[in-house]
């Protein structure tokens, strides 16, 4: 029979349609159009694709998209000056600086220069701290999308045994915080964790974000568990996740595919965060279900 597929592509399409409706209502009732500014430094092909997709997605839901492309040799001072201008621009509600940045630029300095209220990636130290302490925060897009799919599939997560494999600032750490806030019992594992297969076998929820192709084996999965595969690894066989999908699918209760699982939710949640940021800055009610 196999696990139920968690179709992130379809979920993201529904979420984007809902956001488009909320944006139209915001315009009609208040004359406000959410604006997303995306900054790309250099000519990295993958980053250029991401930026183009984000701008296109923003326009499709009725938002304003502001794209800023800077040469790879731009100075840190000039990049920070652009961020400062965007912070002060009332037409811009969300700011995203595409990572990675060139080696001569301090990523942390640039990220933390973004106004926390416009930090739709949720990467600034202030938003990280707010999330960790249970305060109202902008939440990183990928973990937010994972949380939405888990809630949709499992209902309340309280008391579930959750394993997060990976400890990055972008996925692993905020994912653990979100699961804790939903009253799951959370273990964070990583490349140096001992006894990882046994940790997996007791988990009701496995979120794999370790960056290793097919790292999580099928016989590690607890029968009926929900498996969220965040990994996107390029191999000779094409794109594969961090989970051995074919083997895990025979055991799990539900699993995300790669591609078509978590990836589409990341951009949809970027739009959700931009809408949330817009509502907050204008003192308007936030749409239900777009934040933790």
Automatic annotation (TrEMBL):
Coiled coil: none annotated. The keyword Hydrolase applies. GO terms for molecular function: methenyltetrahydrofolate cyclohydrolase activity; methylenetetrahydrofolate dehydrogenase (NADP+) activity. Keywords: Amino-acid biosynthesis, Histidine biosynthesis, Hydrolase, Methionine biosynthesis, Multifunctional enzyme, NADP, One-carbon metabolism, Oxidoreductase, Purine biosynthesis. InterPro entries: Aminoacid_DH-like_N_sf, NAD(P)-bd_dom_sf, THF_DH/CycHdrlase, THF_DH/CycHdrlase_cat_dom, THF_DH/CycHdrlase_CS, THF_DH/CycHdrlase_NAD-bd_dom. The keyword Amino-acid biosynthesis applies. Homodimer. GO terms for cellular component: cytosol. NADP(+) binds at residues 166-168, 232. One of its GO terms (biological process) is methionine biosynthetic process. Residues 140-280 form the Tetrahydrofolate dehydrogenase/cyclohydrolase NAD(P)-binding domain. Belongs to the tetrahydrofolate dehydrogenase/cyclohydrolase family. This is Bifunctional protein FolD. It catalyses: (6R)-5,10-methylene-5,6,7,8-tetrahydrofolate + NADP(+) = (6R)-5,10-methenyltetrahydrofolate + NADPH; (6R)-5,10-methenyltetrahydrofolate + H2O = (6R)-10-formyltetrahydrofolate + H(+).
């Amino acid at each position: 029979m196999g696990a139920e597929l968690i179709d992130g592509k379809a979920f993201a399409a529904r979420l984007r349609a809902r956001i488009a409706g909320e944006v139209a209502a915001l315009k009609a009732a208040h004359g406000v159009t959410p604006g997303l500014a995306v900054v790309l430094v250099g000519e990295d092909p993958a980053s250029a694709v991401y930026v183009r997709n984000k701008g296109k997605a923003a326009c499709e839901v009725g938002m304003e998209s502001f794209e800023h492309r800077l040469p790879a040799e731009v100075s840190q001072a000039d990049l920070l000056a652009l961020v400062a201008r965007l912070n002060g621009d009332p037409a811009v509600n969300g700011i995203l600086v595409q990572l990675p940045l060139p080696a001569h630029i301090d990523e942390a300095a640039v990220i933390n220069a973004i106004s926390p209220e416009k930090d739709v990636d949720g990467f600034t130290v202030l938003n990280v701290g707010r999330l960790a302490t249970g305060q109202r925060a902008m939440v990183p897009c990928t973990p937010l999308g994972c949380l939405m799919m888990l809630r949709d599939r499992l209902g309340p997560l309280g008391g579930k045994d959750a394993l997060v494999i990976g400890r990055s600032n972008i996925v692993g750490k905020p994912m653990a915080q979100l699961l804790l806030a939903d009253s799951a019992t959370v273990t964070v594992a990583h490349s140096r964790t001992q006894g990882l297969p046994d940790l997996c076998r007791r988990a009701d929820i496995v979120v794999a974000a370790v960056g290793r192709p097919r790292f999580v084996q099928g016989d590690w999965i607890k029968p009926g568990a929900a498996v969220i595969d965040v990994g996107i690894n390029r191999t000779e066989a094409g794109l594969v996740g961090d989970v051995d999908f074919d083997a895990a699918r025979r055991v799990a209760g539900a699993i995300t595919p790669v591609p078509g699982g978590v990836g589409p939710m990341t951009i949809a949640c970027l739009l959700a965060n931009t809408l949330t940021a817009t509502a907050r800055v204008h003192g308007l009610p936030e749409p239900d279900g777009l934040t933790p």
